[in-house]
Amino acid sequence: MTDISTTVTVRQATHSDAAPLIAVLVEAFLDGQVADWLVPEANDRRAVYRRYFELVLNHGLENGHVDTTADLSAVAIWYPRVEPPPKGSLEYQPALEEATGVYAARFALLDAVFEAFHPGEPHHYLAYVAVSPEQQGHGVGAAMLGHYHRQLDALGIPAYLEASNLRNRDLYVRLGYRAGPPLILPTAGPTIWRMWRGQPEAPAPAGFPASGPLSRRRSL
Ligand SMILES: CC(C)(COP(=O)(O)OP(=O)(O)OC[C@H]1O[C@@H](n2cnc3c(N)ncnc32)[C@H](O)[C@@H]1OP(=O)(O)O)[C@@H](O)C(=O)NCCC(=O)NCCS
């Protein structure tokens, strides 16, 4: 059997990849409990997500590290958090409101909850990962994340993410993360699992890394 991790070519994305990668993000995140909570009106969702993920991807390209695959069927947006992040840009809030319209309060609340519970220890933050729906379940996501994890492992840097459902949580556990106490989003929102991937060789610290001043503001 072919090991998919050797057949998936991962490279850093650039602005010229933006259009297909925004489409991957929109289609991959279109369904699910978080989408139902963020944009309850299904008829609005695709248009809102198109504007939102354009903002997200461009922010990642300019301020973080974006990986993709040779066929542009997958995208991962990482932010190094090895020192306190710069203050969030003043333009972000109006841009979010413009992109998400009447749903802006939910998007802002999601950001605020994630920010409040972000670990204080230095790490790289996986803000978004998506594989185009036709390609899901064939090992592409695991291969793309494995590519970045190997670089983190060589530098001894942990990783952190929020898992939006149990199936994703299982994937991340297989990739070396462990789950912290779940977050339940307000106003009858979905459950989110905070996940931490320490250095493979280091003994696991007791408990989950505490939230701290290193990350008072989300990168986005
Ligand atoms: C989560 C995601 C990036 C994983 O990439 P992938 O290439 O589909 O995953 P892989 O083939 O490498 O691994 C398969 C595992 O991923 C997880 N998974 C989560 N959602 C999945 C989906 N819709 N289809 C297939 N696998 C999925 C499962 O743990 C699965 O293992 P299982 O089939 O034994 O349950 C991708 O499925 C996706 O884009 N999902 C929608 C967006 C999303 O939820 N992003 C992550 C937010 S935390």
- CATH class, named Alpha Beta
Classify the oligomer: single chain
Number of helices: 7
Structural class: alpha+beta
Give an account of the 3D structure:
The chain is an alpha+beta fold and 220 residues long. It has one domain: Gcn5-related N-acetyltransferase (GNAT) (Aminopeptidase, 3-Layer(aba) Sandwich), CATH 3.40.630.30. Helices cover 40% and strands 20% of the residues. It has seven helices and seven strands, in the order βαααββααβαβαββ. It has helices at residues 18-29, 33-38, 42-63, 92-100, 104-116, 140-155, 166-174, and strands at 10-12, 65-69, 74-81, 123-131, 159-163, 178-184, 191-197. A seven-stranded mixed sheet has the order 1-2-3-4-5-7-6, with helices on both faces. A hairpin with a 6-residue loop joins strand 6 (178-184) and strand 7 (191-197). Helix 1 packs across helix 3 (42-63). The longest helix has 22 residues, at 42-63. The radius of gyration is 17 Å and the shape is globular. Residues 215-220 have low confidence and may be disordered. The chain binds coenzyme A. Residues 28-29, 129-131, 136-142, 163-164, 167-168, 170-171 line the site of coenzyme A.
